Amino acid sequence: MKILKDKGFNKFKILLISMLLTTVACKTYYNGRYQQEIDSIAAIYVPDHRVGICNVKLKYGKNGDIILTGETTNLAAKNEIIKTLNNPGKPLTDSIIILPDTLKNEKYFGLVDLSVINLRKEPDHRSELVSQARLGTPVLILKNKNSWIQIQTPDNYISWTEESSVIPVDRMEMAVWKKSSRVIYLKNTGWLYDTPSDNSGVVGDLVGGSIIEKIGQSNGYISVVLPDGRKGFIENKKVMDFDDWKKTVSCTEENICDVAKTFLGLPYLWGGSSSKAVDCSGFVQSVYFMNGLILQRDASLQALHGFTVDITNRYSRLEKGDLLFFGSKKNGIAHVTHVAIYIGNNEYINSSGRVVINSFDSTRSNYVSYRLSSFLSARRIRGVKNDMGIVAVSKHPWY
């Protein structure tokens, strides 16, 4: 009898284990399938993690209910994920955080407080420098980590910077700043003095495109206050009323070329995007910002916006100010790695080692053969409307 009992118990154990394995396998299968659906939706709404976040994960609760966790900057993506996974037979718990989390952090706007701040891929000084932001740039503060903050700049670029380089403000403070009397610094570099004299000490340095609040004026100088409360003086002739600048700045062929040439000789810096040092796309972005337009940060992003210019005959249809994109093609797919600005007469200006003018004409001394052979496409920025990748400063809600 004992032998028969043991045989029956063993059969029961095998059946129980089989049922448990089947349950686990089913849960794993559905978990994997649902996660694939989540990832597919994320890829549609946030196709590029440089300009958006959608990290959503699925797990099961004790009662078999579905729990969605993670974070995203795109509310539409969150709503689509919930709509897709919502099953009357399986309760769904939404724990997805929309960034910035405005319930936990009222001061989710920020103002850059230094002439130039470094933006990194990860919250670590050893991490790649991906971009920079100038004094007075308004940003969104997405989240904090130790002494670092993750921010989104007006071009939608997402990165990490030191907490001390951005002054947090709430919606009301941001509205007050936007209504204040602001000026924009027009020279490439300069100083903020502690008295109205260029023989005085300095409070800090300035770069082209810095936006500063004006609080007074005397003897050819304006007095200003920085986001952290520091005060100083700037020569009046080097600035312009920001609201007037927004209304009157004109992105013409000549203006683009003129501003670009003021950068000549500036050193190349990977991730650089100020008038101190620039990479290729940071140079282009800086030039266009000083002409009133906000472009995307990286060359591969810039190549997705604007009017396509026919380059079948190389450069015969190019106009001054057009963006030229270089790189390689594999399986018919273009991989953009470099960008330049066309300045006419078969020449273009770009940051390559330093900001230089090169030519497509092989008879000239500034001809670069590999640039011609890697020329992929061209885009026209002037005159573009209703393109989310090209926004006038005057129409950007943060300014």
What would your notes on this structure say?
The protein is of the alpha+beta class and 399 residues long. The chain folds into four domains: 2-98, Histidine-containing Protein, Chain: A; 109-177, SH3 Domains (SH3 type barrels); 180-247, SH3 Domains (SH3 type barrels); 249-395, Alpha-Beta Complex (endopeptidase fold (from Nostoc punctiforme)). It contains eight helices and 27 strands. A six-stranded antiparallel β-sheet has the order 21-26-22-23-24-25. A five-stranded antiparallel β-sheet has the order 9-8-7-4-10. A five-stranded antiparallel β-sheet has the order 16-15-14-11-17. Helix 1 packs antiparallel against helix 2. It is globular. Mean pLDDT is 93; it is low at 15-27.
Number of domains: 4
The total of helices stands at 8
Return residue spans where pLDDT drops below 50 for at least 5 consecutive residues.
15-27
Q: How would you sum up the major sheet? A: 6 strands, antiparallel
Helicity, as a percent range: 10-25%
Overall mean pLDDT stands at 93
From the spread of the alpha carbons, the general shape counts as globular
Termini Cα gap = 87 Å
Q: Under the CATH scheme, which architecture of the largest domain would be assigned?
A: Alpha-Beta Complex
CATH superfamily of the largest domain: endopeptidase domain like (from Nostoc punctiforme)
Strand content: 35-45%
CATH topology of the largest domain: endopeptidase fold (from Nostoc punctiforme)
What's the number of extended β-strand segments?
A: 27
Radius of gyration: 27 Å
Can you list the strand order of the major beta sheet?
A: 21-26-22-23-24-25
Structural class: alpha+beta
CATH class of the largest domain: Alpha Beta
